[in-house]
Structures are given as C-alpha cells and as structure tokens.
Amino acid sequence: MNKWIWTVTAVILLVTLVLEFAFLGDYDSHWWNAIPAFYALWGLVGCAVMIYTAKWIAKNLLNRDVSYYD
Amino acid sequence: MIEILTIPGILFIAGALLLTLIPQKLRSPLFLLFPLLAFVIIWMRPDGYQVTTAFLDYELILMQTDSLSRVFGLIFSFIALGAGIYAYHLKDLGQQVNALAYAGGALGVTFAGDLLTLVIFWEVMAVTSTWLIWARRTPQTDAAGMRYLLYHILGGGLLFAGILWHLADTGSLAVVTLTQAYTPANVLMLLGVGVNAAAVPFHTWLADAYPKATITGSIFMSAFTTKTAVYVLIRMFPGWEILIWFGAVMTLYGVFYAVICKDIREILSYHIVSQVGYMIVAIGIGTEMALNGSTAHAFNNILYKTLMFMAAGAILYSVGSSKMSHLGGLHKKLRWVLLLYMVGAFSISGIPLFNGFVSKGLTISAAGYAGNETAMLVLLLASVGTWLSVGLKLPYFTWFNKQDYEGEVKPVPANMYIAMGITAAACLFFGVWPQALLGLMPFEESYNPFYLYHFVEVTQILLMTFVVFWLLKKKLAPELVTVLDIDWFFRKAAPSVRSLFVVKVDRFYDRTEEMILATTGRLAKAFENPMLWLNPFTDKKNQATSYSQAMEVGMSFILLTILVMLLWFFLI
C-alpha cells in the first residue's frame, strides 16, 4: 500500500516538474516564479508549518477536557 | 396578489404555513414542490423584473431580478431541493416548516430591492434557523441555540440600525452599491452583515451551533446564512478594501481550526469560515473578475459544502457519533458515503475536473490580475489547509485508520444517497463544463480554468500537502477534546454577567418586596383594632364584644339617644 502510494505520488510530481521546466520556463507574472518548483515547496512547507503550529497551539492553549463547558 | 405569491421568498414562507395544514404523509413530497417551482420561476424572470408594493410612505421592492440575484436564487432553490430530498424521511413538522421558511428567508433577501424587505427576510432566517438547532432537544443544543439566536439578534440589530441611519442620511431605502466611506450608517450595516458572514471575530456562532444542529438542519444552515451575507456584500460593499483583510484572516483562521478540531461536523463548520473568507477577499478586491470569482465560489461552495455536510450527517445518522475518536475503519461499511464525500472533498480542494478548480482558480487569478500578490499567497496557503483538513485528515480518520469499525452501523436511508448523488453530480458537471457556470455570472466572463500553469500549480501544492500529511498524520490523531475559541471570553463571562445583571438585580427586588411585605404585616398587626389606640376604656384583649361595663352603658345611652331623636324626627 505504502509503496504504491509513493510511486504514484513521485510519478505525478515528476510530470508536473517536467511540465513546469519544459513549458512554463518563460513565465514571470509573479516574483515567486523565479523559484523553481515554488508551488511544490509552498505545499510542503505550508503543510508542515500548519500541522506543527496547529498542534502546538492546540496543546498549549486551546485544548480542554471534553466536558469543559458543561 | 398572485404575483406576490410568485416571489420565491414569499412562496416558500406560504408553503411553510401550508405544510402545517396537511397530513404528515404528504409533507415531504409537498416540501419539494416549492423549491422546484421557485427554480422555474427564477429561471423565467427577465432582468429588471420588479414587484413593488406600498408600505406607509415607502415603496417596497419585494422582488428585483438581475444576473447576480438570479444566480444566487437558482443555487439557493436548487440546494433547498437537494436538502429537502435529504430530509425526505423526516417526520418532524417543526423542522420541515422552519427549514422551508429559512430557505424562503434566504431567497427573500436575495431578491429584495429595498433594505426594509431585506432586513425582514434577514430576521426570518435568524429565527427559523434557530429552530433547527433547538429541534435536537438536548440541554447542550438548547444553550447553543440561545447563543446563536442572541448573536443573530445582535447582527440583525446592527444591520437594522445601519439601515435606519442610512435612510435618515440619504432618504432612500434602495439596495444599492455603496461607495467606500466609513460613515456610521455604512459601518453598522457592514458589521451586521459581517456577523452573518461569520467574519472573524464574529464567527463563533457558526462553529458553535452548526455541529450541534439536527442532521438535516445543518444541511440547510451550511448553505444559506453565510452565503446570503456574501450576496449582500457583493451587492452593497464591492471593492471595500477592509474586506480583503477580513477575508484573508478568515481563510487562515478557518483552516487552522479545521486542522485542530476532532469532530467531523465541527471541522466542516470551521471550514465554512475559511471558504467564506475566499469570497470576501474577492469582494474586497472588487474587480469584475473578482466579483465573478466570489459569486462562482459561493455557488460551488453551496454544492460541495452541502454534499460534505450530507456525508457527515449520514455518518452521524448511521453510527450515532461525529467525533473522530469514535470513528475510523468505516471504509467497508459506508463505502458509498466515502465516495460521495470525496467528490465534495476533491471539489473543495480544487482538484482538476471538479467545480472548485474553476471558482478557486478564478478567484486567485482575479487577485493576481488586481496585483494583490499577498492575497494570492494567503489564498494558496489556505488551500493547503483545506486539502489537509477536509480532504485528507477528515476522511482518513473517519473511514480508515482502523481495520474495521466495530460498533453498530445503521443503514443510511435511500433518500440521503439520492440527495448526495444529485449534489455530487452537480459538482462534477460544473467542474467538467465550467462555461455552464461562468455563463450565469453577473459580469461577462471569458476565464478558462484549463491551462497548464493552473494545472501545475494546483497539482504540486496538493501533492506535497499529501506527502507531508502522510508523514505527519499521527500528529493529527483524534482525541476527545473541547477546542476553545474566542467565544470562551463571553461564555466564561456569562455567569458573572448573569449574576451581576440578573441574579443580583432579582435578589434586590426580592429583598425589597420581602421587606415591604414584612413592614406591612407588622403595621397591620399593630393597627388591627384602632380602638386600642382611640379608646382608653377597652380591655387589654381588645375584643369588640368585651368592652368595659362603663363603656357599654355609655354606648347604650348614646344609641338610645339617637333612636329617640330619629323617632322624634320622623313621627312628629
């Protein structure tokens, strides 16, 4: 199961990278277009940051016992 | 008169009254008739169609049609039909009547040509939707419904105050586009609408009440209140820059909580805040393309968010819980619900060939064309959170994570599947054929979502989000918790405020009353017999029959004298 998921993910990512470098090389509508594979990085970093901050804030500030308001 | 009954909002409310008069078996089929009728009527009304009536010195425009109100009217009546099918098995008159009237309120606001009509339908929505929370009849939902109602009374009050101020300033009640000026009237109206749009920090009513509403009630609620507010914002406040910031905060705040929360209906509720944020950012940008983006996104959101709420409701119906810690391993027993849910999840995450791909693309591109790169990046980050929270976390911990679900699984009624099937089909239809949707937009739109850059952008973001989720999914594992939000401040303050302004005041009145009664009692006792004070000859016991002998002789003598005098007077 795991191996299958990783293979499909890697293949799709590769396809998008090929498409980006082969066909979208000359686009420059935004400053971040200068960074290669920017959207992949944005997803990677964004998701990791979101999970860690959400977890940290939930644990230290927001989570309470289930009957807190009762 | 007949023409007034063809106004969708009034038609629904009249229908709701009619439902109370007919036998139970006919109620569910008749319920469906009204959205169908409304859909046809709205489709047929030409631009500029008006129904007016006189009220006091004002001319009210009960219905006014243009391309913006039409597209909202069509989707509202469509989803009322879908939600009606979903609730077909329901035998609760109160819920059916209120759900229909609630949808009527939303349609009434959509077609209102003047602010008075608008605010009346606005309040109809507030009251009727509260019933859909109370209908669960538990102490928790009673309290949540009251908080919800109080919040909407506040919002409606702000809006109405703004409208009256606006009337005093301009002498006009017409629903028009307001130029950006922070006058008291405009600010009050904006705040009032902002409450219904669940703009942070006025969003807690949504996340508090929607997960607690009835299974079928939350379907209606997820579609109408916030989207009606979005409609009014597009109509009255396009291009108001402050909305960009409110919207941007909402997109991130909503997904952030959707990542934290552990109850599937709560996750979806917080996620509404995020989605409405997208629409509000676009309204703040205010270009024609952005307003189309906001409209298209509201339209699509009604479809896929309702679909997701339907699937979550089906789980709650079938398993009896919506808490992720009670779920997991349902992929064998509720496979079709998973499949239908994933259509919604793919749509909301903007996967190509699903409808969210079109409207999200349009909205984000509009931000780009307007030169607002910060807004673009915020929206892209929010779409990471969307995919993470409702596209990956929710389905993973509900249908997978365990080998098999061990508890009892009730079969899901066929009508629920049909309703989910229809909405899922609509999500796919508008995803594959976006021109059908873009043709309905308020402004002419030539946007084509199917281009290489868009495909690369979306695929890379979603793919890497998936990778990180897969590696870190244990961090999001279900727990049984209450997650605090801004409502903590007033929910915690409520007991002291109640004690200060209700209990203490009450007690003061009670004490005063007791004191007055006690004093009166004492005085009455003391002056029971005035003779005790007036006549020094009475005995201590002060009985009327036991005067002293001397007194009795004296009184007899007086009485005799009077009798003699009377005889003298009358006889002689």
Summary of the model, kept short:
The complex is a heterodimer of chains A (70) and B (572). Chain A is an all-alpha fold.
What does this protein look like?
The complex is a heterodimer of chains A (70) and B (572). By secondary structure, chain A is an all-alpha fold. Chain A has one domain (2-62). In chain A, 67% of the residues lie in helices and 3% in strands. Chain A contains two helices and one strand. Chain A is elongated, with a radius of gyration of 19 Å. Chain B is mainly α and 572 residues long. Chain B folds into three domains: 1-176 and 194-220, no CATH class; 238-479, no CATH class; 492-571, no CATH class. In chain B, 72% of the residues lie in helices and 3% in strands. Chain B has a two-stranded antiparallel ribbon with strand order 1-2. In chain B, a hairpin with a 2-residue loop joins strand 1 (50-55) and strand 2 (58-64). In chain B, helix 4 (67-86) runs antiparallel to helix 5 (93-111), helix 15 runs antiparallel to helix 16 and helix 16 (373-399) packs across helix 19. The longest helix of chain B has 40 residues, at 487-526. Chain A binds chain B through residues 5, 9, 12-13, 16-17, 19-20, 23-24, 27, 29-32, 37, 39-44, 46-48, 50-55, 57-58, 61-70, and chain B through 140, 255-256, 259-260, 368, 373, 376-377, 380-381, 384-385, 388, 452-453, 455-470, 472, 475-476, 479-485, 491. Strand 1 (63-64) of chain A pairs antiparallel with strand 3 of chain B.
